[in-house]
Structures are given as structure tokens and as C-alpha cells.
Design a protein that fits this description.
With 179 residues, the protein is mostly helical. It has six helices and no strands. α3 runs antiparallel to α6 and α5 runs antiparallel to α6. It is elongated and about 70 Å long.
Length: 179
Amino acid sequence: MNLMVLYWILLAVMLVGVAGAVLPGVPGPSLILVAILVWCVVTKFAIPILPLGLIFVALILSAVVEWLGSYWGAKQVGASKWAQYGMFAGMAVGFFGLLPALPIGGPIAGILLGGLLGGFVGEYLYQRNLPTSERVKTAGKVSLGIGFGALIGNLIEVVLAIVAVGVFVWSTWSSVMWT
């Protein structure tokens, strides 16, 4: 296969990966990583080491930013430790698919729904001394904070995915255009 054709195919795959950073059911940064690894193998790592390192740092950060965003959102609304533990447990359960699978969404939707439900349940259980209506209200507030934080995390994830693709194009474009 012509190297330029492969380059354009991999760029298209990376753009799907950028979209996947926010679209449930579409692989995100992992798709970008696979495309870059294919390029590296085919070209025998012709990409300079510094840009390659920057790309991997951006993709690693994008892998954890949604978790951190949800945690930040929970902290902003004063979530208890129970809500935070419930959120992380729910995110892990959702990520590994133990929540009922949605026709679209997969692990990303599982992380979001699992975090929201886990945080809600954790806060609800923690506030056992409050009347039921207050428990629901407080737990709902915590879930909204988690959701807002996850949204911020997703936006940062998209920016990091765009940065990774941009660095790849910047560091490989001239070598591809002259082949």
C-alpha cells in the first residue's frame, strides 16, 4: 500500500477517535493510539521521539481526565467520602460493562451512568439521618456535580485528542508529502 494512502486512512481513523472522545459507543483516544502505533510500525518509528512522547502524554492524560473531572465535580458540591467511593465503584463497574449495556454507549456511557448512580447511592446511604426527601435532594445534587465534572472532563479529553492528532500531523506531514 502506498504510504500516503495509509497516512490518509490513519488520519481518518484518528478523526473518528477525536469524535469518540465525546460520542458514546465510538472508541476515542485508544483509536488514535492504535493508528499512531500502526504508523510507527509501518515506518519503523520514523516519527521523532519528542513528538511521539508528547502524543503519548496527551493520550494518557485523556484516559484519566474523565475520572478526575467527575471527582472534581463531586468535590465542588461537597460530596461525602461515601459518594466519592460510590462514584469510583460505579465508574469501574460501568466501564467493565457490569451495568446493563446500552445499544450505544459501551464503556463511556457505563462510566458516566455508573459514576452518577454510584455517587447518588453513596450519598443517599451516607445521609441516612435525613428525611427521605432531603436524602434524595442531597444525593441528586451530588449526582449533578459528578455529571458536570464528567462533562468538563470530556471536553478536556477532546482537546487532548485534538492535540495528539495535531502533534502527529505536525511531526509527520513534511516527511509524507515529500515521499
